[in-house]
Design brief:
It is built from one helix and eight strands, in the order αββββββββ. It has 146 residues and is an alpha+beta fold. It has an eight-stranded antiparallel barrel with strand order 1-2-3-4-5-6-7-8. The protein is globular.
Amino acid sequence: MTTLINAFLITAGLIIASSANAADQLNNTKWVNFNKEGKPNAVLRFVENNGKLSAKVEKVLINPKNKTKCDECKGKYHNKPLIGATLIWDLEPDASNPNVYDNGTGIDPKTGISFSGKAKLEGNTLKLRGYKGITFLGKTHVLKRL
């Protein structure tokens, strides 16, 4: 009986450790986002808090006239600095696949529109999928690791 309990505790510990590791592989990593023309747009930094990931703008790479505020943005980012803005939050690692994240939320600062999100890590590429309601109708952004 003691052997069975020990085996259960070890297995439970490994499951918990592996789910914590899933978020850790993106924790404190930097990624470059690209615009529609394929040019580097911004650097995002992912951070983990309580097992969930969020991404903040660390650097804006395309910045006409060195603007410090986003006067083109809608909603809560209108006339606010984009550097430091949280654009993605609550991404959770999938317990069955450490390279998949789900249940996230994000916002497009240009439009002010919020969306549901998920992500898939493929080596030095992170595919972020944003969608409203149905995943099929969404859009995927490909980010490259710095």
